[in-house]
Each structure stands twice: as structure tokens, then as C-alpha cells.
Amino acid sequence: QVQLRDGGGGGAAAPAGDVRPALLPADAVPNLPQELCGVWAYLAWERAGCPARSGAEADAEYDAGVAELVLLLRRGVGLDELWAVARGQVPWAQFQAALGGAVSGEDAAAGRAEGAPSPPAPAPPAPAVPEHLVGTQAYLLWEAAGKPDGADFGADARRVLREQLAAGRSVQELEHALGASPPEASQTASQTGAPPASAPAPAQTSEESGLGASRGMRSVDPLDLIKRPAAAPLLADARPGAQDSPLAPLVRAAGEDDAVCWHRTFNLGDGAQLLATVRRLGDPHAPADDSPELMVELVSDAPDALVLHWGVRARDDGAAWLPPPPGLAAGAGAGLLAGGEAAELAFEGGAAQGSVLSMDGEELPLQRARVPVPVDADLAALAFVLRSRDGSRWWRDGGGDFRVPLPTGDGGGAGEGAPDAASGNPLLQDSVARAIVEAEATPAWTLMHRFNRASDLLEQVAAGGVEDVEGSLARIYVWLRYSSIRQLTWQRNYNTQPRILGAAQERLTHTIAKVYSKTSGMSQEWARLLLTTVGRGGNAQAVRDDILHIMHRNHIPEKGGTWMEQWHQKLHNNTTPDDVPICEAYLAFLESGGDQGTYWRVLADAGVTRQRLESFDRPITVDPQFFGDRRDALLADFRAYLKVLKAVHSGADLQASASAAARIVPAAAKAPLGYALAHAGTGGSALALVEAAVEARTELAAGGALASGREALYLDLALEATARAGAERGAGAAGSAAAALIAPLLQNLALSVADNEEVCHCLKAWLALPAGLRGGGRAARDDALQATAVLDRARRAVAALSDRVVTTLGPLGAALGAAFGAEDWTVRLFAEEVVRAGPAFALSLALSAAEPGLRAAAELGAWQLVSPGAARGELVAVPSLREVQDRAFPRPTVLLAWEVTGEEEVPAGVVALLSPDAPDVLSHLAVRARNLAVLFAACHDAAPLRELEALEGRVLELDSTAAGAVTWQEADEEEV
User: Fold this and answer.
1) In a 10 Å sphere around its CB, with 0-12 CB exposed, 13-18 middle and 19+ buried, how is residue 359 labelled?
2) Domain assignment of residue 54, yes or no
3) Among 23, 219, 390, 890, which residue's Cβ finds the most Cβ atoms within 10 Å?
4) Are residues 407 and 270 both part of a single domain?
5) Is it the case that residue 166 has pLDDT exceeding 80?
6) Are residues 870 and 824 both part of a single domain?
7) What are the required cofactors (predicted)?
8) More reliable by pLDDT, 21 or 566
């Protein structure tokens, strides 16, 4: 209960009959805490229904809230009582009742007219706003406002902090209230034991370079970030269960039996499995034509008595379920159902019929069904589902039919091309790879089917059902990445309602998070990367419902042949990630006043062409129509609709991820996360944005939030992408000032990769350098020497991480890409694009930008090694590498190219490449040079290159030195 104190004497007299106390004099009112002013104004806005408002309206409402608080204080209400209302400890209605009625606008105006003071103005000079607190305050304001997408609370946060400082609160009090660390704990401040700055003034500050001012970062010990390998694989405990499966010895036997031409294990749920095999009868070594028939055998350990409900797929019409030929059904002892659409065959054995397998002295119940198939039957596959004998349960394969490919007919292939696509390549002979390739050959196939099949395989991994966990996860990642870059079909001969697709996405993402929590090392890194290939899912039904509501609300008819109706039909039947850029393009079209060029430009930037729009099962064949009289309403509706689409299809969107993970964000992460939310995509300080994103990631990892589920992992990925985008925006033109990015980007990389020990040691060595040097300032020679040594070490670490990914994903990407029929260019660049999309690429840009200035300060040689090595060949000089990248040199060649961009190929026959240009260590050219063991070095001094050019046509022997230089001497012609 709020008790109003007596107003006391000296105030204005209350009107006759007014039960409210007299007003206190204005000078008797205590200082008004500005944090209370902000909360009070927010509560008033919330009670008004959270209306949309302009900045001027928000400021006016803030001032009205301040006047109301001042009036309440003059009436004798204490600050503690007002805080109780602001904190929700006293309901507003109860507070109003205790006052005897609401405070009216007239009262507030009267209070102001009687000299009610505004919040105390700061005496000049105005107190500086502590930047390390802005992010925390912005996050709290964003959270209090309902976590709106794209909202920037940075200015509001500064205003609140400035007002609190003006009211007399100290920075230490604000730090305590917000739970923020003081700036002395930032990495940009002087480190304990770090040497003094090399020079009093920087050559170019980060702000002058375009990077912007630093906000600082909370200090961490880099060695605490090292990810120690687990004592044992975390899935090891699950593996004995898989070995004890009754089907395990049969699976092993099928893999070793030459007569078995195809086999696969299907999960039926609740721990039950189904083993399907195709066996050639007769001599397995005889030609296929000499085998009179095949035997399809299905064996299961399911507790329910099973019935096989089956049909076939013809080779010339593989998408259709057909009834089995009467002779085939009769040969299997199966009966055709009424209507002839399918046959049914009961499994033999099981617990009820005493069919057992002796394993380690224990008899386990199994049940089996067999279907003989003539080799000349010319069938593509056996298609089936399972049901219990009482008909109460049905089993399907991830929402579709089970399918057993048949090597029958003239082609002698494995039916629909699936098993043959994997044959001959040792990387595709494991059960996971074969299951992936076979699934992609299914005639009726959508994203929903792919996501459900991936969930099945991941659940098998999580249950310990595979020996090579890391390799299996890498194969699944390659598969889903090919899908995410549109190299696999998103919809074929099947329509999927959005709610069903959303459920499949949700199942897959939660399964990935479960695998992440049960693995470590590279397996965990692959699991994390899997989330980058699929959206969150969630309320996908809103995709279908909301577009119809928008059309009805804006009186847009469902008229065939119009753009809106065509997109509506696509959304209704098969929503895909393409719908996000389609919506963004339509919004740009509306914002531009109906400019068709803007619409197509946004689509092109996202890789969506007119041909792709027209290729949909429900095609979009016309251009959008502009409704000028409804433009503003449509903009508001489709901005909200874009949030729905991103929530379903865009997992690592920062705003959506922060909203979804708000309840698990550690307190220490709120300040940097708030800053990142307010400044991502605004074009502000790139350095401060990178620092904030990396600090937020660090606090998420330190607080154990990443093990809590997919929401924290998606937020971590979104912050990683934010840091990468900020670095790529600022590093290119920063020059030596890019050194300020190196510490946060090393920390960012350490948080992402599994084998991060060398990266952490590089970060520790970098932080031991003088703060001025690390910020991009001038460096003394000795300090610059130490810095270049650290940069060389960091460059080698980045190259090693890149090479490890390329070595793993290159062969897998080539094998699976060939099996999928992916475009050649995507297969060739698959592994490199994965590296360039990750955190190592941003770091490599910063290293390349900062290194020349530091090498000059260290008075080192002009050479910079990109790919060390030794070579012998004839020197050839060319103006540009691009001009000769497709040329094949007939003899070993040392190529001097005066212009290199990093995107070219290494020409055939080139054993060494020299240039004045130094592309980053993760450029396509640098990666190819390392993979081909080609010496690649850049020289920042034209004199040595001119000296080399004078030797054109001579045979040279080159070598790279431990100091990072290149030496050469002439060699005998016959030695080449």
C-alpha cells in the first residue's frame, strides 16, 4: 500500500474539498533519478498500447513523464514509492487508488507552471558518457521495448546515461547498477605487464582510417579460451548400445557379402531398426545376367508385428507408385489389396513366432519379409511403408516412402541412379554417404524430406550408431551446404505446406544442437557449422496465413496471373529460403515508388534470377504491380512479414537470434550485445562493432550458454557473422590502422574453431605488445620486429586452419558434388568458399592490411611470403596474371606477374609466382598455391623485381628463407 506523506507547510494550499496534499515548494523536491524518468516514460508508453511514434513524440512523452514525477514528488510521494511502481512491485492501479485518482495533464501542466523544475541540467562542461556502459543501457532499453527488430537504442542509451550523470550519479554507481566492467578491464587499455606505447602519437588512428573509435573489450586470458580435447569421445557411451543391436551382426555381414549389391539400415523410432538388403541369388561372381533373380530381404527388431505394404516404381516413370505385377506379388506370397494399388505381406517371425538370432549366448527376436524379383523385371525400385498388424501404427521414411533400388533391366544399374552415383568412390562407401546419395535420387523430394532424412542420420550419429563421427558430420554438412547454395532441388514432384516444412526445420535444428552438446573437437565444429545451412523453422504456418491476411487487408484480389497471387500460391504450397529475398525485393520495389529495376537488382544480389522464379513448381512469371494508394500500408505489412520469413528461413539473423535467445543471455553479454544490435548495418564504427560482437560471443561461451540449445548457437553464429561483416567493411582501406582489428579477430577465430590452441597463443603474444602499436600507431623498430613475428605466426595458423578445411572438404565436396550433379564451378570452389565465409578470412584481411607498415617500421626486407617453398624454372614476366591464368606452360616456369588480384588460377606448369601485389592468405590464389606447393611471394620494393625481370628467359633456382625473404640464383639449363 502506498502511503502519501503530509505535504507540510509552505506549499500551495489545496483547493476546498480536495483530499490531495498541498504541493511542496519546488526547491524542496529531491533530485530526480534520470533512470526513473526513463522507466516512467516507458511505462506510460506501454500503458498507451505501445503506439508507433516519432523521435520528437518520444521526447515529448519523456518530458511529460518527468513533469508527472516532479508533481508526484511535490505532492509528497517518496522516491522509494515511485521506484516500487517503476519496478513493478506496486501495481499501477493500486498506486492510482492510493493517490485518489490519476495525475491529470492539467495537474502536470500546473506543476510546471508553478515552477516545477526539469531534471537538473549538467553544469558545463557536460560529463562525458562512458562508452563501455552504452551497450548495456541500450540492450536494457531494447529488451524493455519488446526486442523490436532493427531498433537502434544507442542514442536513447546515451541520453539516459548523460541524464543520470547530470543528476549526480557517479560512473562507478552506474557500472554497479548495470553490471558492467570498468574501462580499465578492456584489451585496448594498458595490459598488466605490457610494455609502454612505442610512440606518443599514432601514424593513423583507427578513427581517422575509417575504422572508427574503439569501445574497448573486457579483458580475458587468451589461454583460458583454449578448447582442450575431451578425455574420450562424448558419444562413446552411446556406441555399446549400437553394437548390442540385434541387427548389428547382420549389418556387418551384409557389408562383407559379395552377393549383397545394396543394403541400408532405416530407423523406425523408439530404438527399432529395419535392415533392407538386395542380394543376387546364385554365384555372386557370375555376370549379372546369369543370376536368375534378386532377393529383397527386410529384417527388423521392432516389437510390433509388421506388415509390408508395398508397390514398385518403373524405370520409365520413377516418380509414381505402381502396384506390383501379379506374378511378382504371387512369387512373394503377397496378396493384392482391393483396387490393386498395393500388395501386402506379413513379416515372418518376431517375438510371437519365435524367430531368434543367437548373439553372445542371448536369443533375440527378429522378423523378416522377402520379395524375390526377376533380374529382367525392368523395375527401378521397390517402394513400401510398414504398418502394425492391427493397423494402429504406420511407419514411413521421413515423411515419404521407403525405397529399395533394384539393379534390374537392360541397364543393370542400381535403379534411379542412386547407388551407382556413389559406386567407385571410396569416400562415398560408408552408410551415411550412401544414404545421402540415395535420398537425393528420390523422385518426390523437397526440403522437408531432406531435413527429415538429415535428422534421421544425425540421430543415428547421436546414438553412437557410426564409428566415424567426425567424418559422418562432415558428409552431412557438405550435403546440406550444397542444398543451401541451391545446388540441390528444393522441391520436386511434391508440395509441402509451410507448417510441415517448419516442423522439419525445427526437428533438424534441435537435433543438431543435441549432437553439438554430445561431441567435442572437430565433430562439434561440424555440428555448429550445420546450423549455418538451415533456418530455425518455428511458426511456419504464419508464412501461409499472413500473406493471405495482407492481401485481404489491402483489398488485393486473388486473381490469377498477377505477381501477388503467383507468390501467394508458391508460399501456400512450397515456401523456401528464396522467399526472403523475394520479400526484400518487393519491399525495395515499394520503397522506390514501383521501380522494376530496383526489384530485379535486389533479387540478383541474392542470386535469384528470372529463370529461377519461373522454374518453381508454382512459378512467378510476371513483374510486381505497384499500388500507390496502398504503398505505406503494404510497406508496414511486408516489413512485418519479412520478420516471419526470416524467423523460418534465416537462422543466423542477429535481431531474430537475439530475441529468441534473450532469456539465456548472460548478464555480462548484454552490454556488448546491445551495442551490436544498435549498430549492426548502420555504417558506424567498424572496430567498435567487431569488438562488441566478439565480446558478446566470449561471454556466451564463458557462461555456458552454448550448451543450452540451438537459440544460443544461432546467436553465436549471428554475432560471428556481424564481426566478420564489420571487419570486411573496415579492414580494406584501414592500412596500418587495421592492427586494431587483429586482437578481436584472433579472439573471434579462437571462439569458432575446434583446434584453437595456436590461435590463442598468437592472441596472447599480440596482447603483450604495446597498446599504441596494437591500435595502429607508430612502432619503434624493436616493437615492430616483435609484431611482425606475431603476424607471421598468426598467418601460418590461419593458413593451417584453411588447409585443414580444404583437405577435408575438398575431396568430400568433389565426390558428393559429382554424385549430385552440381555445377562444376561450385564443386571446384566448394571448400575455398567455406573458408572464405568463416572467421579466418576476416582475420587474414586485417593481417594483410597491417603487415606492410609493420615490416617497414621493423626495417625488414621487402619480401612477404604467401606460400613458402623452393622452385627451379625459366623466368617469364607478364603484365597481369589474369592474362595467362588459362595458359599451360610447356616447362617449369617462374612467373613474374606485375598485377595479381588473388582471384586468378595458378597456370599449369608454374612452379613459382612473384608479384608486387600481396593478396590475403585465404584468397583463391593463395590457397591454390599452397595446395599445389607453388612458391608464392610478394615484394613491396620494385628494385628486386626489376632485377629479376632483367633475367627473363634464364633458368633460376629460388628458395624462401626462415626470415621471410626470397633468394635466387641462376641454374643450368639442363637442370630444368
Assistant:
1) middle
2) yes
3) 23
4) yes
5) no
6) no
7) Mg(2+)
8) 566
